[in-house]
């Protein structure tokens, strides 16, 4: 080893051990943590995909409705999933989506049932379950929160049929 590297074997192995230690330290710091809870958005996405798959296997999913424009928040509240004969709806930025395919997820007893039958824009932007955030009011949100909401809106638009809009105040 010394003839090829010019270093005594003990020095060479010490350098290799230090490099490996530095590699594992840096990769452990930069890699996502496997310990602790996953971010809310990751949990929502995973559970939503599972619920959509389960709903696709259901025999009689609720029919899709076209509510049209000018639906009041009170009218939207009737589609919160408590009446299983009605589709499950929720709104983001005033746009109403049929989320019936994820009834296990957004319906009664589901982990995100609080969003159903409401415009959940503020809650999604803030990643919050607080009752005061379960509304469409965007006043006072940071640019980062508005970006989070934009991501949610794009996800819902690509995944669920849009069936109407909330009547502006």
Automatic annotation (TrEMBL):
Where, per UniProt, does this protein localize?
A: Cell membrane; Endoplasmic reticulum
TM ranges are: 6-26
UniProt keywords (A-Z) are:
Cell membrane, Endoplasmic reticulum, Heme, Iron, Lipid-binding, Membrane, Metal-binding, Steroid-binding, Transmembrane, Transmembrane helix
Boundaries of each Cytochrome b5 heme-binding domain copy? 71-167
Cited Pfam families:
Cyt-b5 (PF00173)
Top-level taxon of origin: Eukaryota
Q: In Gene Ontology terms, what is one molecular function of this protein? A: steroid binding
What name is this protein filed under? Cytochrome b5 heme-binding domain-containing protein
